[in-house]
Amino acid sequence: xxxxxxxxxLEQDFTCSxxxxxxxxxxxxxxxxxxxxxxxxxxxNHRDEKLAAFFEKIPLNIEVNGKSYKMETEPRETLLDFVxxxxxxxxxxxxxxxxxxxxxTVHVDGKRVNSCLxxxxxxEGKKITTIEGIGSGEKLHPMQASxxxxxxxxxxxxxxxxxxxxxxxxxxxxxxxxxEIREFMSGNICRxxxxxxxxxxIVEVKNGGQxx
Amino acid sequence: xxxxxxxxxxxxxRTDGILKVTxxxxxxxEYKIEGLTYGVLVQSTIAKGKITVLETKxxxxxxxxxxxxxxxxxxxxxxxxxxxxxVTIDRNIQKVFYNDQVYFAGQPIALVIADTYERAVYAASxxxxxxxxxxxxxxxxxxxxxxxxxxxxxxLRNEKDxxxxxxxxxxxxxxxxxxxxxxxxxxSITANWESDEKLTVYDKTQGVFGSQKHYAGLxxxxxxxxxxxxxxxxxxxxxxxxxxxxxxxxxxxxxxxxLPLKLxxxxxxxxxxxxxxxETKQFIGIGASKDGxxxxxxxxxxxxxxxYDNFTEGTVGGTQFMYKCPNVNTQYKLxxxxxxxxxxxxxxxxxxxxxxxxxxxxxxxxKLNMDPIAxxxxxxxxxxxxxxxxxxxxxxxxxxELGAKKIGWYNRNPKPKSMTEDGMLVGYGMxxxxxxxxxxxxxxxxxxxxxxKLTIQSAITDIGPGTGVMMKSVxxxxxxxxxxxxxxxxxxxxxxxxxxxxxxxxxxxxxxxVYDACTALKEKMVEVYxxxxxxxxxxxxxxFNKEGFNIKGKSFSYVDLLKKAGLKELEVTRESRxxxxxxxxVFNSFSVHFTKVHxxxxxxxxxxxxxxxxxxxxxxxxxxxxxxQMIGGVVGGIGMALTEEGVxxxxxxxxxxxxxxDYHVPVHADIPPIDVLFVNKPDPYINPIxxxxxxxxSIIGLAPSIANAIxxxxxxxxxxxxxxxxxxxxxxx
Lengths: 212, 733
Ligand code: FES
Ligand code: FES
Hints:
The structure holds two protein chains of two kinds. By secondary structure, chain A is of the alpha+beta class. Chain A has helices at 7-17, 19-34, 36-45, 49-56, 79-86, 142-149, 159-171, 178-184, 195-206; strands spanning 58-64, 67-73, 105-108, 111-114, 127-129, 139-140. Helix content of chain A is 44%, strand content 13%. By secondary structure, chain B is of the alpha+beta class. Chain B folds into three domains: 17-25 and 439-577, Aldehyde oxidase/xanthine dehydrogenase, molybdopterin binding domain (Aldehyde Oxidoreductase, domain 4, 2-Layer Sandwich); 37-134 and 182-273, Aldehyde Oxidoreductase, domain 3, CATH 3.90.1170; 389-437 and 584-733, 2-Layer Sandwich (Aldehyde Oxidoreductase, domain 4). Chain B is 26% helix and 26% strand. Chain B has a seven-stranded mixed β-sheet with strand order 4-8-2-15-12-13-14, with helices on both faces. Chain B has a six-stranded mixed β-sheet with strand order 10-18-17-16-11-33. In chain B, strands 19-20-28-29-32 form a five-stranded mixed β-sheet, with helices on both faces. In chain B, helix 10 packs parallel to helix 18. The radius of gyration of chain B is 27 Å and the shape is globular. Chains A and B meet through helix 3, helix 4, helix 5, strand 6 and helix 6 of A and strand 1, helix 1, helix 5 and helix 17 of B. Strand 6 (139-140) of chain A pairs antiparallel with strand 1 (5-6) of chain B. One FE2/S2 (inorganic) cluster binds at residues 94-97, 99-104, 114, 116 of chain A.
């Protein structure tokens, strides 16, 4: 993967490398406005990695788990794939990629979001929190500890999403009774069926009963 | 909320619990490997025919694409594929990209490998296929005449169709559509050829050795050069009992490109690429005397399978021995359709079969004007009717008792449509479940180190039940140690051999191996002690405790023993397996499910209000996780009963609902409080730990208990799963 360049440098590359390159780049860049399919076709036919890179590398400033990143992202890259594949934060899970399961739940500026349903490029300047950002093996977040205590999981694959959703559920004020919790947690599927234990875990945290 | 907690895991917590709640658990698509490439599969859009043109040029030229693999360029690069003309290998696993034939809609026809996931997805969209289509069949009901008998002969005990001569009898048909396992983790694999002769696979599998054998077989390699790693499996429920073509595609793709490759299926692909519980039609004829003595049962089933495999399951098996009944005949047939291959899904065929039998039992009890529990107890089998052997242990009668008491069974008004609550019709239903309690050969290694820590190793996978905590519990009990002293390692072919996780077998097999290995380690300690101190003590002189042991009042710690003997560690590996007890007894786990439902009097909407399960699974090893596993089965059963159905558009042979928005698995709001009651009596013969296993009986019997509850609430018998409100059609009354 040699195309880790910023678009400006890339344009420079295009214009300076050769006259042919210049022409190709200009035609291509003019064509962007006119016909995106045409341009993609050009990229395909000419195996034009540089051109592809131009489309694929949009600068992105983002804060994830308190750490700032200056990176590039393809406009088609989801926030989910960005954290999993680019930042290696694989705690956030992919269960459907269509906003139908909640496995990918993260917090964006404190609100729960299905990260598969939002593009990384849309998160400019935002603060993202993933499961890795709320606690660790040595010091667990009360919700993590409560899930452990109540056995609120089996295979563990939906668990990071459930926990991120559960924290938000309480913060939103939607955890006032087991039935309200069930309603507001229904976007998070658990195929192992840990639901009753998850509800117990959330109730305990809500009531402040979780002890260290 | 924001305060973090220092936490020492409780003895009853999962060994991998902290990793799972912190995002530290790594599933098969989550390993960081330098130079990783991404694979995306392209699928057939027709159900049957031939690929005439496969246009891959555009994809090959797209940015970042390294390789496009299909039947056009696979050639003879996979020796095992080239060996014969069969379209399947091993356990009838379809060879991937083997030829131009399409056997079902959604079959993988090409693999795009690129340097990023986005580029692979885009390039895959550029691949176009033309087909020569043939007429396909995906409709069970319309193809019943073409069925085959996979087992050769049908089961008959005494007189055939004797139910017809009974004083009271009924005949009924049952049906259910495909259920799809849909574990939350997508089918995922990372294949890494470290050299031409050495392969490491991070796999979604229920059995690392099964996978290892399969991948090694592809290239005629020695198994020891293939390592399969699966310490975390994000659910499976049967879909990862064997490997699938997508996994071959990844292994072959990585071999050809010489680059590590990761392939993750999409949720849509999970519907056609990794099996399902097949659509099944059933017939039951059942008859009894007026006072409720069963006279005859006929149970026939037609299950769906693919054109390239005869997939079978135990759909009619339970009927042969569940009740004392002089005349029983069963027939099991397969209907081969242009669909992908099914695979056992939790409680497999038994869950399907028990739906029919236990609904019929309820219906007959009603006809006889008997209580459903009294009717079952009247026909209670104490000797296995097929083998004429006693059960090793059977406390099904206690389960009826326990569950009935808990849910208040005898307080209900048994008359249908007689009870209401909050403007809803109220129904109570019950049904029982049974499953084989097996025991496979398994090996465990226990290692005591110089710090007094005990490591337990076995290659078994843990797809969710808490296998690690079960192993830990057995060792804690053996050594009287605390959980903190014990480390569990599993899910890796480098560890001692274990069976595939499935069929409610794991605790019985691996738990016993851990038990035997722990016992052997203690015996070894006695030996080491005698050698070190020049004494002649015997095993019974030793009283083990968490720090060490006590011999006639004198205490030694494990640490001291190893120090004295000059050892860094003490290690024992033991294989454990069943013996002749299997010829003397029949081994089964039993469950009884009780459910309470609300049915809306106008719309027929069903809400499950309460579930009580009572269970005879022998000794319960780790109660917290056993309860969770039972709850999980109940949740799956609620889906089977009320919401789950894979619906084809038969014109094209494709699914219309292959996603979570349209295929409804239960969500939080669907699930009521669930009570789990264990008889918890050790089975004296099955194995040294007395545990029988409960993964399957957790779901078997749940769907009929709901169907029976709906009958009680509404007076309507719905014999077609899932029971959606249109089938109750209460407004027509
Ligand atoms: S992966 Fe995002 S909702 Fe399922
Ligand atoms: S714990 Fe397995 S899906 Fe929820």
